[in-house]
Amino acid sequence: MVLEQDLSIVNKINRLLGWGHWFTFFNILLTLGVTASYFAADPLPSSAVGWLYLVLNWLGHTAFLCFLFFIITIFPVSLLFPSQKHVRGIGAFLATTAIVALIFDAYVYHSLGYHAGSAAAEQMLDLLRAQVVTNLRNFVLITSSVFVVLFALELVISNFCWKKVERLKHAHIHRPALVVFLLAFVSSHFIHIWADAFNVQAITRQDNVLPFSYPTTARSVLARYEILEKQQLQPRNGQSSLHLASRQSQVELSCPSRLDAEPIQVWVVQALTDEQRQLLQLQHFKNQNQYLAPIATDVALANLVHGQLSAEPLAALPSWLSQLPPDHWSIQAEPGWLQHSAWLGASQANNTALVRWQFSDGESLILALKQRAAAQRMVVMELTGHSERFAIGHAELWFYWPELHKMRISQVSQALDIVPTLMAYTGCANAQNWLGDNLLTPVKQAKLNIIGHQLYAFRKDKMLLVQEDGQFSVYSAGTEVPLENKPDWPMLTEALNRLPPVTTTAE
Q1: What angle do CA 201, 207, 208 make, to 5 degrees?
Q2: Is residue 242 helix, strand or coil?
Q3: Rounded Cα gap, residues 491 and 463, in angstroms
């Protein structure tokens, strides 16, 4: 009797394991539809080798995830509770929960550009909070409906596999399927090893598309956003030499007729003196503590006036300047500034413009402050930052601007933010996204700057510095003191989302 009972238990376990393998197989087919959606979040490959790797990685990695899920969940449940009623129900519930979690991860990836995880908990909560606040009823209805439909489908699959397990065995489809998934998994890894060695970006930029894929590195994140390009130099030490390439964003302005907004003056100086600071304090100007600007003059001008990242000096007129009505904007520069940008001397001064820029040597600023009316809006800033360690550093930004006084700016602000803020103040809208922010509205997205061969990402006081070779460091933006060595990849990805899309990609 004992032997018969033991054999009965063994047969039950064998039947449950056979059911579990077929249940996993059909869940692989179901999950392939979910994982395919990840590739829609990024530009698709433009080369045959990129597409080959995409398909192989999609098949192999999805099968691996489902099989791993079976090993760590349904397999131990089958051993602990060898009852087909319990295991089939528990398996359907666990599979439904896993697919819902995968759908949520795909939603996070499409919305934020990175996968769900503990490092992105704050951003995920903000994303969910936005959905709940805007439309709670639809959010609950859609979420619950998806879970119910998937659970019903999983129960159907579970019962089908249990009843047809013997017929499925004799169908002889499991061996070809196993060969396909196994070959796809193995070959995709070998292709990736080759692509990593020869810097085939059509493949390496797919590193982090699927969840639980290759470990995230700075180089893989940069490759995904296509800002790593091959130099025209010979490789050194057998490795490709890379550099960071910046991209210019398009500006397409639409401006209303002259608003009732009060005129504002923007004064730019190389460095503020003690006398100027004293006058600013006496006139109740507010000092923006966390304001950063490039330490190189040409790059600082590109950030400030053009509102662009710059790998090279921008000598032409800003593209947005010609799109503005004459009464919106005026730029005037004293002779000493013309050596930096000759176009400053070609711009027309207009004392009745809504926004009046003045590039000053300092003395005229003192006179303007002494003659300023009490309610006159004015912004005073240093062009370049100060740092002995980085290509970007602290600069002074003072403003008497009631609308901006009301804002509680907890993020680092940059020279890239000045033009978007002034454009918003004048009512001008850009059809494209600025690289900087409008400081008159709350800002949560991590900030970005690329200077030379260095990339900087900022959130609040944290600054992530990424070198061209993929090495990273984390610092306090306020004190420049090194922080923990653990990188914040969600912050870097969020900052890189500011970049305009690439129109053409050289493979």
Answers
A1: 135
A2: strand
A3: 10
Handedness of CA 363, 266, 288, 285 (dihedral sign): positive
DSSP state of 25: H
pLDDT in tens, 32-70: 999 999 998 887 888 899 999 999 999 999 999 999 998
238 residue type, one letter: G
- pLDDT > 70 fraction of the chain, expressed in percent and rounded: 87
Count of Cβ atoms closer than 10 Å to residue 408 Cβ: 5
**Strand 329-333 with 355-359, pairing:** parallel
Q: What is the rounded distance in angstroms from the CA atom of residue 484 to the CA atom of residue 280?
A: 37
Q: Count other Cβ atoms within 10 Å, centred on residue 72.
A: 9
Amino acid identity of residue 16, one-letter, is: L
Collapsing DSSP to helix, strand or coil, 36 comes out as helix
Give me the residues paired with residue 239 across strands.
Answer: 236
Residue boundaries of the structural domains of the chain:
2-215, 253-443
Contact of 345 with 333, CB cutoff 8 Å? yes
What DSSP string describes 407-434? Answer: ----S-EEGGGHHHHHHHHHT-EESSPP
Give the distance from CA 430 to its chain's centroid: 20
Domain 253-443 in CATH 3.40.50.880? The answer is: no
State the Cα–Cα distance between residues 74 and 131, nearest whole angstrom.
33
Q: How many residues does the chain have?
A: 507
Kindly state the tokens that stand for 145. Answer: 């409906």
Q: How many CB atoms are located within 10 Å of the residue 391 CB?
A: 18
Residue 20: which of 71, 83, 85 has the closest Cα? Answer: 71
Within a 10 A sphere around the Cβ of 79, how many other Cβ atoms? 12
pTM of the model: 0.72
Report the alpha-carbon distance of residue 80 to residue 70 in Å, rounded.
14
pLDDT computed for residue 485 by the predictor: 65
Can you name the residues that pair with 472 across neighbouring β-strands?
466
Q: Would you say 428 and 324 are in contact if contact means Cβ atoms under 8 Å apart?
A: yes
Cβ contact 42:224 at 8 Å = yes
Segment 264-279 shows an average pLDDT of: 92
pLDDT tens, position by position, 327-375: 788 888 888 787 777 677 666 667 778 888 999 888 889 999 999 998 8
Element (H, E) at 464: strand 462-467
Query: Per residue in 183-224, pLDDT tens?
Result: 999 999 999 888 877 878 788 878 888 888 876 777 777 777
